[in-house]
Amino acid sequence: MSIAASPNVDVERLRRELRGQVFTPEDAGYHDAQRLFVPVYDGVRPAVIAQVAEASDVATVLSAAREAGLPLAIRSGGHSAAGHSTSDGGIVIDVRGLKSLEIDLESKTAWADSGLSAAEYSNETNAQGLATGLGDTGSVGLGGITLGGGIGFLVRKHGMTIDSLLAAEVVTADGEVVHTDPASHPDLFWAIRGGGGNFGVATRFKLRLQPLDKIVGGMMILPATIDTIVGFIAEAEQAPEELSTIANVMTCPPMPFVPEEFHGSLVIMGLVAWCGDLDEGQKVIDRFRSLARPIADMVQEMPYPEIYGPEDEEYRPLAVARTMWADSFELATAETILGFLEDSDAPMRVAQLRVLGGAMSRVPNDATAFAHRDRKMMVNVASFYEGPDDRSRREEWVSDFAKALSNGDLGGYVGFLADEGEERVRAAYPGATWDRLRRIKGQYDPDNLFQLNQNIPPAS
Length: 460
Ligand SMILES: Cc1cc2nc3c(=O)[nH]c(=O)nc-3n(C[C@H](O)[C@H](O)[C@H](O)COP(=O)(O)OP(=O)(O)OC[C@H]3O[C@@H](n4cnc5c(N)ncnc54)[C@H](O)[C@@H]3O)c2cc1C
Description:
- It is built from 13 helices and 19 strands.
- The protein is of the alpha+beta class.
- Strands 12, 13, 14, 15, 16, 17, 18 and 19 form an eight-stranded antiparallel β-sheet that branches. A five-stranded antiparallel β-sheet has the order 5-6-10-8-9.
- Strand 8 (165-171) and strand 9 form a beta hairpin.
- The protein is globular.
- The two termini are 13 Å apart.
- The site of flavin-adenine dinucleotide has 33 residues, from strand 3, helix 5 and strand 10.
């Protein structure tokens, strides 16, 4: 389908036919409805934002988008780094009105609407002593994180979010409401586990829940030296799978609980989550404490969802970032990281290191559209910038930093890709995964109606 901006949406008809709400730029509420997590997209002006209330609303909007020939964006939590969940002059299907969550205590499963945020889902399931692994941020939407893969605080013990996905309800490009699971539309079920929003609008997910009430977790800040960085990664790799970690090697923000002398110095802001026996967890985490005297140590027993931490909606820094995989971590890697971080004068700069393995790595690479199970670590490098004046300088730094760490390996996590071009999307789906995704895309969305995403072109 060729997409050209046109004003031909019958908004009044949409308003009559939808159970949800419809916003156009003249409406009060439009501004809030169009705002994404990333501030660079604040100026984007969709022609219509449809906040759907049920799957049939989605089908109605899909048909309107087809008729009008307008670009179509799908939005859940609004965290797309590429701005794919909005569109200038286009139509946005916003699933945030879909918030139902039905927990079946006996089977330890939940049917969860795709408009729930990670925190909303986790708070409700925690009230029943249950959890599903999502990401590291409470405001991320269940829609985007599940379809991209989901790498979070339970990844080593319970795998990715898609490893807990048992079934989904998806409205496909032709408006059909499809139930997909390993037996029903198995190709679609394979494709949505990592293939992002390419195959339809997911309205509900059936997710496996694990018994989990409290964890030992939180933030520990250590001084960043070659030894502490190498030591942190070694401990994270050797730890039992109950422990998942995120090591942010970065400039220390001026947080009130950090002594002033450390503000702006290079630290490891470690986030740790232990989901097993609590006393054993304390002992395992003590090994990180013994790497250096912690500058701050807020690791404690807590209900699992508290690991997300508070979020300030008004704190919306501008950032450029790059994601990649790594299979080893040497002394020289730590040297490179410290060298780049020291050389930059950006207000904030970071190398984020996530040790993977465990349950995530026991699923074969070809079992889902996410196909990087064998990679040992995910690495993200990022720099804040202040505006147009320093953006290209910060971008160049991020790109050089990523090149130095990745040795030409283009692969990365689709959930963290920005608008980085076809080559990077292709590398996110290596080998036969790409060809299979293209065939399934050809079957379920031959006209590429869903193209505002990390796009997989349909095989003809
Ligand atoms: C601060 C931050 C922290 C993050 N932390 C993690 C992390 O720890 N682990 C991790 O794995 N990822 C993480 N991510 C990446 C995140 O999972 C992806 O950006 C994800 O796509 C965001 O989902 P969303 O619903 O919030 O975003 P949206 O912008 O609403 O959606 C992103 C894209 O997903 C697709 N999509 C969303 N909902 C649907 C739906 N219902 N049906 C069909 N397609 C849909 C669309 O293509 C859309 O453009 C993080 C991102 C940010 C910004």
